[in-house]
TrEMBL record:
Family assignment from sequence similarity: Belongs to the ExbD/TolR family.
Biological processes per GO annotation: protein transport
Gene3D superfamilies: 3.30.420.270
Species annotation: Sulfurimonas aquatica
Alphabetical keyword list: Cell membrane, Membrane, Protein transport, Transmembrane, Transmembrane helix, Transport
GO cellular component, one term: plasma membrane
One Pfam match: ExbD
Main location: membrane
Record's bilayer topology term: Single-pass membrane protein; Single-pass type II membrane protein
Subcellular localization: Cell membrane
Record protein name field: Biopolymer transporter ExbD
Domain of life: Bacteria
GO MF term list: transmembrane transporter activity
TM ranges: 12-31
């Protein structure tokens, strides 16, 4: 006598609790890794101006930032006045169309701003723009 055996059916069940645990682990991983990524941003409180004339050339524009404590930055890297002088001469020699933008914090002492302008004057560089916030 032959027995009729039914084929066993496998029922695959994925528990949503396991998926929630997996998502929680991934969330913790991404939160902890992204909080350590810090962008180099120089916080400046620019003075206000009514001027709206802006000239910008993407690869030829360099920003010199002056913080309120007279720290000077060239394209987000801290520099001394000697290093700043070398960098601007090098960039200007590479392309005479280079534009140097000076971004000074509104609370920066005037002498720090003048010191940076003197560096440009000593090197006979005249492609200078002063960054401000537009008055609304």
């Amino acid at each position: 006598m032959r027995r009729n055996r039914k084929k066993q059916q496998f029922h695959l069940d994925i528990a949503p609790v396991n998926l929630i645990d997996l998502l929680l682990v991934l969330l913790i991983f991404f939160i902890t890794t992204t909080t350590f990524l810090q962008l180099k941003v120089i916080e400046l409180n620019l003075p206000l101006s009514d001027s709206t004339d802006v000239k910008y050339k993407k690869n030829l524009t360099f920003v010199v930032s002056i913080k309120e404590d007279c720290k000077t930055f060239f394209d987000k890297e801290s520099v001394t006045s000697e290093t700043l002088s070398k960098l601007i001469v090098e960039k200007n020699r590479a392309d005479k169309e280079s534009i140097f933008q000076i971004a000074a914090d509104a609370e920066t002492p005037h002498r720090c701003f003048v010191d940076v302008l003197d560096v440009f004057k000593e090197n006979n560089i005249q492609n200078i723009a002063i960054l401000t916030k537009q008055r609304r």
